[in-house]
C-alpha cells in the first residue's frame, strides 16, 4: 500500500507540475492528514495544474493504491487482526470495485449521476 500510494502521488504531482513531488509523497504516506490535503489541493487545483494525460501505469497505481487503502481501513475495523484478512478483503471486495471505478474510469459516470 505504501509503495503504490507513494508512487502514484509522485507521478501525479509531477504530471501536474509540482516542484516537490517527493515531498508530497512522503507527507501523503507518513502523515494522517497528508493524503487528504494533497487530494484537496488536487481537487481545487490550488498550486497544481490540470493533468494532460493519464498513462496505463498511472491507472494501475491508482487502482492498487485505492484498493489497498480501502481494504486497510475496512479490515482494521471489521476483520480480526492479521495480514491475511486484509489481503482477502482487498482481493475480494476492493480490487474489483476499484478496477471498475478507477482503471475503467467509471467514476466519471458515477460523478455525473450524483450531480444530476
Summary keywords:
2 domains; Cardiolipin synthase N-terminal domain-containing protein; 6 helices; membrane; transmembrane; transmembrane helix; mainly alpha; 116 residues; globular
Question: How is this fold's topology laid out?
Answer:
Blueprint: H1 2-15, H2 21-30, H3 34-44, H4 56-78, H5 83-103, H6 107-115
Transmembrane segments: 22-40, 61-79, 85-103
Keywords: Membrane, Transmembrane, Transmembrane helix
Protein name: Cardiolipin synthase N-terminal domain-containing protein
Task: Walk me through the structure.
- It comes from Halovenus rubra.
- The chain crosses the membrane at residues 22-40, 61-79, 85-103.
- This is Cardiolipin synthase N-terminal domain-containing protein.
- Keywords: Membrane, Transmembrane, Transmembrane helix.
- With 116 residues, the protein is mainly α.
- The protein has 2 domains: 1-52; 54-116, no CATH class.
- Helices cover 76% and strands 0% of the residues.
- The chain has helices at residues 2-15, 21-30, 34-44, 56-78, 83-103, 107-115.
- The chain starts with a helix and ends with a helix.
- The model has no long low-confidence stretch (mean pLDDT 77).
Amino acid at each position: 500500500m505504501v509503495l503504490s500510494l507513494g508512487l502514484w502521488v509522485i507521478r501525479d504531482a509531477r504530471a501536474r507540475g509540482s516542484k516537490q513531488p517527493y515531498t508530497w509523497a512522503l507527507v501523503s504516506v507518513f502523515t494522517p492528514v497528508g493524503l487528504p490535503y494533497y487530494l484537496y489541493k488536487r481537487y481545487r487545483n490550488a498550486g497544481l495544474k490540470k493533468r494532460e494525460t493519464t498513462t496505463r501505469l498511472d491507472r494501475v497505481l491508482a487502482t492498487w493504491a485505492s484498493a489497498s487503502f480501502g481494504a486497510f481501513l475496512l479490515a482494521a475495523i471489521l476483520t480480526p487482526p492479521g495480514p491475511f484478512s486484509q489481503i482477502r478483503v482487498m482481493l475480494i471486495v476492493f480490487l474489483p470495485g476499484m478496477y471498475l471505478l478507477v482503471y475503467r474510469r467509471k467514476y466519471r459516470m458515477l460523478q455525473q449521476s450524483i450531480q444530476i
